[in-house]
């Protein structure tokens, strides 16, 4: 089996890893680390924390690989691991209001209404959307990230979150509505 690792399926790479081929797991990391990292940035709001959780997720996945049943995609499985680690990290924070203190406090943004109106540049808008996401409950933020940023189908989200598809739809609807409310509160979107 001298097939290049990049052309092997996830299941073939998992089997090779379990047989002792560490390079096979390295290929799984290469395939999914950027995608997982980007999802975690949206969940955690911090590149540094997203890097830590991404690394911890792959370490845990490597240690638990023999428990991977193959009834889901590898990314679904590792995202579940990463989500649990991210939730633990979020819960360990003193308060959600301090989530984005490095870029200014929420109070600073809300009090900027007295400043002259000026167009927001893309970076400011992204930062404020991140702040709005940070103000959502964990389950709302997670479901939005999976659908809107990862582009996952309802069925895949249901599998990751271990909830029915109908629940995914209703939670996503509520999360979108709540995000809109948060964006309005931050002055990014006008009420309609």
Radius of gyration: 19 Å
Strand content: under 5%
Biggest sheet overview: none
CATH 4th-level superfamily of the largest domain? RNA polymerase sigma factor, region 2, helix turn helix motif
What is the averaged pLDDT score?
81
Describe it for me?
The chain has 192 residues and is mostly helical. The chain has 2 domains: 1-94, Rna Polymerase Sigma Factor, Chain: A (Orthogonal Bundle); 103-192, Winged helix-like DNA-binding domain superfamily/Winged helix DNA-binding domain (Arc Repressor Mutant, subunit A, Orthogonal Bundle). The protein has 9 helices and no strands. Helix 2 packs across helix 4 (74-92), helix 2 (22-44) packs across helix 7 (138-149) and helix 8 crosses helix 9. The protein starts with 9 loop residues before the first helix and ends in a 7-residue tail after the last helix. The model is unreliable at 94-120 (pLDDT under 50).
Write the layout of secondary structure elements.
Elements: H1 10-18, H2 22-44, H3 47-64, H4 74-92, H5 106-110, H6 122-134, H7 138-149, H8 154-161, H9 165-185
Helix pairs in contact: 1-2, 2-3, 2-4, 2-7, 3-4, 4-8, 7-9, 8-9
């Amino acid at each position: 089996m001298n097939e290049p690792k990049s052309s092997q399926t996830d299941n073939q790479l998992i089997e090779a890893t379990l047989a002792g081929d560490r390079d096979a797991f390295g290929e799984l990391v290469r395939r999914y680390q950027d995608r997982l990292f980007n999802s975690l940035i949206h969940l955690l709001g911090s590149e540094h924390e997203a890097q830590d959780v991404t690394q911890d997720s792959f370490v845990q996945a490597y240690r638990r690989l023999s428990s991977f049943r193959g009834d889901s995609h590898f990314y679904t499985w590792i995202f579940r691991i990463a989500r649990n680690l991210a939730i633990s990290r979020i819960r360990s924070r003193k308060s959600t209001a301090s989530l984005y203190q490095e870029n200014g406090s929420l109070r600073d943004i809300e009090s900027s209404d007295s400043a002259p109106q000026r167009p927001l540049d893309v970076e400011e808008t992204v930062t404020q959307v991140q702040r709005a996401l940070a103000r959502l409950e964990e389950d709302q933020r997670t479901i939005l990230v999976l659908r809107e940023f990862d582009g996952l189908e309802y069925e895949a989200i249901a599998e990751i979150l271990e909830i029915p598809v109908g629940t995914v739809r209703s939670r996503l609807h509520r999360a979108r509505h709540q995000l809109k409310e948060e964006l309005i509160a931050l002055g990014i979107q006008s009420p309609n």
